[in-house]
């Protein structure tokens, strides 16, 4: 069994949405026993309450990261991405738009006539 990361994640290798395997990995239980408890709850409580609870857990739990998270910055980025992909994409777009604006301003300075005259006068 692999070491678990902080937070409860749905497993990518799980049978149905990876909820049981994610819980088993997080709490360091056997996947068999977590699935057994889930099926027992399904049988004892009726079909709909257990199924609604399972689907709710699948919606609330974030999917397990593809690559292991090694720093706090990576964790913050993954949490932001997993909670709102659109927001994370917009944040990256704003950041690269800002970089593009800076590069454009530097290009304008370097290609301006004043820069060319200053370079000629210095040489």
Note down, in words, how this protein is organized.
It is a single chain. By secondary structure, the chain is mainly α. The protein folds into 2 domains: 1-68, no CATH class; 84-123. 71% of the residues lie in helices and 3% in strands. The chain has 6 helices and 2 strands. The protein has helices spanning 19-27, 31-45, 47-60, 72-83, 85-111, 113-122; strands at 9-10, 62-63. The longest helix is centred in the C-terminal third of the chain and has 27 residues, at 85-111.
Task: Please render the helix and strand layout as text.
Layout: E1 9-10, H1 19-27, H2 31-45, H3 47-60, E2 62-63, H4 72-83, H5 85-111, H6 113-122
Parallel strand pairs: 1-2
Q: What is the element string, with H for helices and E for strands?
A: EHHHEHHH
Query: Termini separation (Å)?
Result: 68 Å
Largest sheet: 2 strands, parallel
| Unreliable segments of 5+ consecutive residues | none
Number of strands: 2
- Category by helix and strand content: mainly alpha
Mean pLDDT: 80
- Give the proportion of residues in helices: over 70%
Total of DSSP H or I helical runs spanning 4+ residues = 6
Content of β-strand? under 5%
User: How many domains comprise the coordinates?
Assistant: 2
């Amino acid at each position: 069994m692999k070491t678990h990361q902080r937070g409860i994640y749905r497993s990518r290798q799980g049978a149905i949405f990876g909820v049981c395997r994610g819980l088993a990995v997080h709490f360091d239980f056997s996947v068999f026993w977590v699935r057994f408890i889930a099926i027992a709850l399904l049988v004892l409580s009726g079909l709909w309450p257990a199924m609604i609870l399972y689907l709710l857990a699948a919606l609330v739990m974030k999917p397990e990261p593809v690559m292991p998270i090694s720093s706090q910055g990576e964790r913050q980025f993954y949490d932001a991405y997993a909670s709102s992909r659109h927001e994370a994409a917009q944040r990256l777009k704003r950041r690269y738009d800002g970089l593009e604006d800076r590069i454009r301003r530097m290009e304008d300075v370097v290609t301006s006539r004043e820069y060319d005259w200053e370079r000629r006068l210095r040489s």
